[in-house]
Backbone:
């Protein structure tokens, strides 16, 4: 069996950034395995701008952002296998993959970085009643048809879910000549960035229907319309508010799910809330030598943060391969429910650690508190926090002190 | 007159309050950076947007393109029409100019993808 | 001139065609839809019933028990997945216990083998995730599961490989008996055949009326289902039914041969034979009752919901007869129709023989068909041997179900050839996983367009107006 020090599963922004970081940390025996024909992952179809402000100080489109990293991968001659699908990963780090040239093959790795990204929730997961006609797509699938294939999957459009992809596709379909009748959002607030509501909906007078959902699908062959309804505070549709909207297309932007099927084959422990692996500050999973980063770990709002996280995984995978001994501690990070999750979920080393977290609802005038029992490790007031916006706090070794467990809590006035 | 805007300069999306009189901006508040102030002024006087879309390629596919600077917002659909009539020859590299000075806006349409 | 025209390309028409293909007969299958297995054969409980349910002495009872005995061999020959997982009918109270006892007696009378009534302890030992509230069960070890559309596709493919013709988009609108043969017409074609077999499912009453037989009617009975992710497929080993009512066998929870967990169906009498819409109430009922049958049915892991229409005949039994010379009705084939299908086909051949059809055996008849799932189940060495010959087998298109380009291309080139996305889905499982085609459908559209030599935007989900894309972007409008 072929042996390679570091195998990176996925050649999107996370995989490329992790590979570059590992290479720069001295690992030259590495391989990126990418299922698509080219590097870049989902960025290739995200042709809108808004990427890279943090990383590069300029506004880039998705393909441009991907190209910045692909150039680095090519310059450093980091090997990558396109059109190659990883089928299985064992806990002792044997990777089984397949492609048309090499057939099914196995590689024994010293370390593995999981960077498979995420997938969209589909109609089936929502169990919307009605018929099953053509014309219902996840926003990402429609994005692929329009932006990469050059075809129009519809003309009269309703969008369910106001996540960023939904908002971006509302504008995109409009620019290409479609009419977007409404964006329905189950929650009383949008899951997308405020700037996208402004420039994707308001610019084109597309109504955002908060606290609304699609309750029925109509049409035998192609979609002919949807019935929407307002929902009550328990998110149950109110029958009197049913409203029929004729349309030929329904786009779904109803959530992203980290694609952890391979993590499961490798026996990696998953976090019920994030849907991704439980990791430490180095992004190492419960299986020694297997790291995770990017949207396979938890869904990010900005690719800039994906790259940043992937660098952490890349550097530390390199350190792991070099067998660097480190002083170990064990601090579990817990949340109070108003804060839904943290990444990492555990800290095993006393050094500066940036902890990312997401809240469960929109809260105003809150205090974010980190508690070690009675001891307040950190606190900061915030005018507003929302589920759509990932927050971060950097803790230093002194703040960690001798904590065994840190509670991340939100004090709401 | 007070106008409320959401800044689109960066993902932060600051809520801006613009004080206006006779279409003159008197003050901007709520912005976290100077670019936010400039955005508010532009938005109230001559709003602009960067246009990102695709253009047909010679092989019948599409390539992603953008305007290399923001264009007047009201020209977005006219620019789309112009871009839609264009066929890009292959190969094409990131940054290649597809259309120069589109509709006299001073912006070039450039490729954002290698094909 | 055909010897036999079969109206309807469902599991019944398909099994009859395949059974008749062993003789020197010129056979055609006429189907109004864009593909085979588009009616009840595409959406049902996928169960091979043991045969304890039907009234003793009925055709249903006789053909169910016989069909169930034949099914494993038929599936082996056709390369169709089949699993003898056994079934359980669980009861929650004293009234249910009496029903279970009654089913046990009825099953024995029908000739079902190895039936047993279990108490709560034995039941939970056998199937630990069955509801703790269940107090008894009928255990039928011969109960099995099969994929109904896979069986239909394979049967029709096998009949075609042995010379039968399949005419799709052929909606029969008139049948005329010349005394020697029938003229069967669609809006744009006419087919001549000496014998007609009416296996038109929900529309078999309309087809019968075309030759003057109005002795029965068929009405649709809706059944709604929810299918769960493969992650949930090992919750149960057996198919778990509740005690039946007069509307059907109640909501079941069952593993599928492909490893998913299936829940449903509801049971609602309908008027509209084309209304396959699910309802919020129906899906809620499926969730409620399925959760009562077994512990740990995770509806958060559902990947799709769908609706099937049972073809319920007005007589209460299968309607298999010759209302006039050379015309055979095979109608009212509701549950246990799938289980009975091989036996129904055998029975129809006997009827035809009695009616004077005495065909010779076809010496070149091949009863077998290569399994479409063979690649998936091969060892790494076997896979690599195949990939070396055909590299497309190394390229994964559907990541959720790990289906390769080679498997999809082979399916597109194999009888009966799929022409749309759903057709590829039913043959290969590509798009059938947790992302429901989100990632792979744009590629499959490309393969379908190329193989069928049609424009990309002409590819449909299931024929007709079910277009995936309307036009290219950037076109002058």
Residues:
């Amino acid at each position: 069996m072929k042996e390679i020090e570091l195998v990176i599963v996925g050649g999107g922004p996370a995989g490329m950034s992790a590979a570059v970081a590992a290479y720069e940390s001295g690992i030259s025996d590495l391989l990126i395995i990418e299922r698509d024909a080219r590097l870049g992952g989902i960025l290739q179809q995200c042709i809108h701008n808004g990427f890279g402000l943090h990383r590069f100080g300029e506004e880039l489109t998705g393909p441009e952002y991907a190209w910045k990293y692909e150039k680095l991968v090519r310059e450093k001659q980091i090997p990558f296998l396109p059109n190659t699908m990883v089928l299985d990963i064992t806990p002792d780090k044997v990777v089984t993959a397949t492609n048309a040239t090499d057939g099914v093959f196995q590689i024994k790795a010293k370390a593995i970085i999981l960077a498979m990204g995420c997938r969209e929730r589909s109609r089936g997961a929502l169990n919307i009643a009605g018929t099953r006609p053509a014309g219902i797509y996840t926003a990402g699938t429609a994005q692929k048809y329009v932006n990469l294939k050059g075809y129009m999957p519809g003309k009269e459009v309703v969008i369910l879910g106001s996540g960023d992809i939904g908002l971006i596709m509302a504008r995109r379909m409009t620019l290409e000549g479609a009419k977007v009748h409404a964006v329905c959002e189950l929650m009383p607030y949008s899951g997308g960035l405020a700037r996208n509501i402004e420039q994707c909906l308001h610019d084109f007078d597309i109504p955002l229907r908060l606290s609304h959902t699609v309750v029925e699908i109509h049409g035998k062959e192609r979609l002919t319309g949807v019935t929407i309804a307002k929902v009550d505070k328990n998110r149950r549709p109110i029958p009197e508010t049913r409203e029929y909207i004729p349309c030929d297309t329904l786009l779904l932007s109803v959530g992203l799910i980290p694609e952890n099927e391979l993590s499961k084959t490798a026996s990696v422990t998953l976090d019920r809330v994030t849907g991704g692996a439980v990791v430490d500050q180095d992004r190492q999973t419960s299986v020694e030598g297997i790291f995770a980063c990017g949207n396979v770990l938890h869904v990010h709002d900005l690719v800039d943060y994906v790259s940043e996280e992937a660098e952490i995984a890349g550097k530390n995978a390199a350190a792991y391969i070099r067998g660097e001994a480190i002083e170990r501690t064990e601090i579990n990070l817990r949340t109070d429910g108003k804060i839904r999750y943290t990444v990492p979920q555990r800290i095993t080393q006393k050094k500066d650690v940036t902890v990312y977290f997401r809240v469960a609802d929109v809260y105003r005038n809150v205090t974010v508190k980190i508690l070690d029992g009675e001891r307040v490790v950190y606190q900061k007031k915030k005018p507003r926090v929302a589920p759509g916006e990932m927050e971060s706090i950097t803790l230093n070794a002194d703040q960690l002190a001798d904590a065994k467990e840190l509670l991340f809590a939100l004090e709401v006035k | 007159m007070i106008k409320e805007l959401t800044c689109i300069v960066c993902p932060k999306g600051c809520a801006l309050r613009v004080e206006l009189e006779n279409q003159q901006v008197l003050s901007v508040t709520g912005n976290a950076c100077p670019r936010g102030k400039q955005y508010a002024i532009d938005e109230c006087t001559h709003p602009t947007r960067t246009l990102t879309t695709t253009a047909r390629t010679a092989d019948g596919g599409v390539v992603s393109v953008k305007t290399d600077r923001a264009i007047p917002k009201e020209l977005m659909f006219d620019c789309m029409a112009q871009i839609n009539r264009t066929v890009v020859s292959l190969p094409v590299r990131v940054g290649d100019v597809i259309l120069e000075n589109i509709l006299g806006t001073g912006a070039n349409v450039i490729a954002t993808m290698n094909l | 001139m055909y010897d036999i025209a079969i109206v309807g390309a469902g599991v019944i028409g398909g099994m009859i065609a395949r059974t008749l293909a062993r003789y020197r007969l010129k056979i055609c299958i006429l189907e109004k839809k864009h593909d085979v297995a588009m009616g009840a054969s595409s959406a049902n409980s996928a169960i091979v019933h043991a045969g304890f349910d039907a009234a003793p002495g009925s055709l249903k009872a006789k053909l169910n028990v016989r069909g169930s005995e034949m099914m494993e061999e038929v599936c082996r020959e056709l390369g169709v997945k089949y699993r003898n997982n056994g079934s359980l009918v669980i009861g929650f109270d004293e009234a249910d216990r009496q029903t279970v006892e009654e089913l046990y007696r009825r099953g024995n009378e029908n000739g079902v083998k190895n039936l047993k009534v279990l108490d709560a302890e034995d039941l939970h030992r056998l199937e630990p995730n069955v509801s703790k509230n269940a107090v008894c069960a009928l255990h039928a070890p011969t109960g099995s599961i099969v994929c109904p559309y896979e069986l239909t596709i394979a049967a029709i493919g096998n009949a075609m490989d042995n010379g039968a013709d399949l005419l799709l988009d052929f909606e029969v609108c008139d049948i005329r008996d010349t005394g020697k043969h029938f003229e069967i017409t669609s809006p744009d074609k006419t087919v001549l055949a000496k014998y007609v077999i009416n296996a038109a499912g929900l529309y078999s009453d309309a087809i019968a009326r075309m030759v003057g037989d109005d002795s029965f009617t068929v009405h649709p009975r809706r059944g709604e289902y929810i299918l769960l992710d493969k992650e949930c497929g090992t919750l149960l080993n057996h198919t778990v039914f509740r005690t039946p009512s007069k509307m059907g066998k109640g909501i079941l929870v069952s593993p599928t041969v492909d490893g998913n967990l299936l829940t449903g169906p509801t049971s609602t009498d309908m008027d509209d034979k084309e209304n396959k819409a699910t309802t919020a109430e129906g899906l809620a009922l499926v969730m409620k009752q399925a959760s009562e049958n077994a512990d740990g049915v995770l509806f958060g892991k559902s990947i799709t919901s769908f609706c099937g229409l049972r073809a319920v005949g007005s007589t209460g039994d299968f309607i298999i007869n010759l209302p006039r010379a050379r015309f055979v009705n095979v109608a009212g084939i509701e549950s246990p129709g799938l289980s009975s299908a091989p036996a129904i086909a055998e029975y129809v051949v006997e009827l035809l023989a009695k009616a004077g059809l005495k065909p010779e055996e076809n010496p070149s008849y091949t009863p077998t068909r290569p399994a479409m799932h063979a690649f998936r189940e091969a060892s790494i060495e076997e896979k690599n041997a195949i990939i070396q010959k055909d590299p497309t087998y190394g390229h994964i298109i559907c990541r959720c179900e790990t289906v390769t380009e080679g498997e999809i291309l082979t399916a597109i080139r194999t009888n009966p050839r799929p022409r749309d996305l759903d057709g590829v889905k039913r043959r290969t499982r590509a798009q059938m996983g947790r992302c429901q085609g989100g990632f792979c459908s744009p590629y499959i559209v490309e393969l379908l367009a190329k193989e069928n030599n049609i424009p990309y935007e002409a590819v449909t989900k299931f024929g007709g107006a079910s277009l995936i894309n309307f036009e290219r972007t950037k076109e002058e409008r």
Notes: The interface with chain B takes residues 473-474 of chain C (CB under 8 Å).
